[in-house]
Design a protein that fits this description.
Number of helices: 4
Order of helices and strands: EHEEEHEEHH
Structural class: alpha+beta
Number of strands: 6
Largest sheet: 3 strands, antiparallel
Shape: globular
């Protein structure tokens, strides 16, 4: 039996809470995360099944050594970085209170993270969409050769995918911000 496994699972930038839950369930099943590879691959290593809390923080490569040291001082193991996200874990047995299982001290910190995601991920993607993809799609519709037809279909698929992801992530991030605001 192999001591490593690779799984493919797609989470958007707004699905980080679901990703944390999924990683925790994998660890309870005896598989701890060791590495992530874009776009959606997770590499696990066999371990003793244990209840371990996983937490993600989005820093987009703006964290410092002091930042990571603070987490270590509070018992969090930093073990992975992928696409701006930092991955931390901590055994539930090492948490005395519910707050010990959280990396954020308050809901304002969570709101700041969601705002950072919107500014550094959503807005640039919107600019790319409206500045490049959508105008190219509109231009390709007017062309009348067979190669242009292929591009129209490809652009149409990309436009639909982009719109779906914008709606999903935008609505979900908005709901998370609302949830954190209500928790204050």
């Amino acid at each position: 039996m192999s001591n490593r496994k690779t799984m493919a699972r797609f989470f958007t930038i707004a699905d980080y809470e679901e990703e944390e839950i999924w990683l925790r369930s994998q660890h309870k099943s005896g598989w701890k995360l060791v590495k992530t590879i874009l776009p959606c691959f997770y590499i696990f290593e066999r371990c003793t099944p244990e209840d371990v809390v996983y937490r993600l923080d989005y820093k987009n490569n703006t964290e410092s050594g002091d930042y990571l040291q603070i987490f270590q001082d509070y018992g969090w193991e930093y073990f992975n970085r992928c696409n701006g996200w930092l991955y931390f874990r901590k055994p539930v047995l090492e948490t005395d209170t519910e707050q010990d299982g959280e990396i954020f001290s308050d809901d304002n910190s969570r709101i700041d993270m969601v705002s950072h995601i919107v500014k550094t991920r959503m807005l640039p993607l919107l600019v790319i969409f409206f500045g490049c993809l959508l105008p190219s799609f509109v231009r390709s519709i007017g062309e009348s050769d067979s190669l242009a037809d292929v591009f129209v279909v490809a652009f149409a698929v990309l436009v639909i995918l982009y719109l779906y992801l914008f709606m999903h992530c935008g609505l979900k991030l908005r709901a998370l911000k609302k949830k954190y605001n209500e928790g204050q």
